[in-house]
Design a protein that fits this description.
This protein is mostly helical. Helices cover 76% and strands 0% of the residues. It has a domain at 1-111.
């Protein structure tokens, strides 16, 4: 029973290690020489055991991605591993076109300046900290917005300097609900 669970867990770890770079940075391409299986640490060998037979024939880029994934996995807490496993399970169920779109967005994100990346991370964290009902309302509001208006809002936001963005956020936070409603109506009429 325990060996069966260990085998399942090892298989899961191998799949997870293979896909972690897609979530955490697929840009690890470097043109290094292949590393032989014998050069791996014992911990890496344990995590990457699924690839043992084919390791020496894998491209150097894939070997490096797998090694980095194994190293990240070994530093994760049990909670982080559980969350990573849940993300991986969700990832496996996504249609191919959705995966391609997410990969493209991730590459676009990695091209942004570090301060813009940090702002996006902070906004994401803020959004995830909202109650579920508020998250759903904001998603619906964005989804129901005409595409032209969505694009105009994106362009307008991207044209602001970081300081202007911060000032706009502070103004919005200081508005009363009634002021916010009037402001939204004014924007829709433009």
């Amino acid at each position: 029973m325990i060996s069966k669970m260990m085998s399942k867990m090892t298989k899961f770890l191998m799949n997870l290690v293979f896909l972690l770079p897609l979530f955490f940075g697929a840009g690890y391409l470097c043109y290094a020489e292949n590393n032989s299986w014998e050069q791996l640490s014992p911990a890496e060998k344990t995590t990457l055991n699924q690839f043992k037979e084919q390791w020496n024939s894998l491209p150097a880029e894939k070997q490096e991605r797998l090694q980095k994934g194994a190293q990240r996995w070994s530093t994760m807490s049990e909670d982080q591993k559980f969350k990573a496993q849940a993300r991986f399970e969700r990832w496996k169920t996504l249609p191919t076109d959705r995966k391609q779109m997410l990969r493209k967005r991730f590459q676009e994100f990695k091209q942004l300046p570090p301060d813009a990346q940090q702002q996006i991370r902070q906004k994401h964290h803020w959004f995830k900290s909202l109650p579920q009902g508020k998250q759903q309302a904001l998603k619906k509001q964005w989804k129901d917005m005409p595409p032209a208006m969505r694009n105009a809002k994106k362009e307008q936001w991207l044209s602001l300097t970081p300081n202007q963005r911060k000032q706009a956020q502070q103004r919005a936070q200081n508005m009363t609900p009634q002021q916010r409603k009037k402001f939204k109506q004014r924007l829709q009429n433009e």
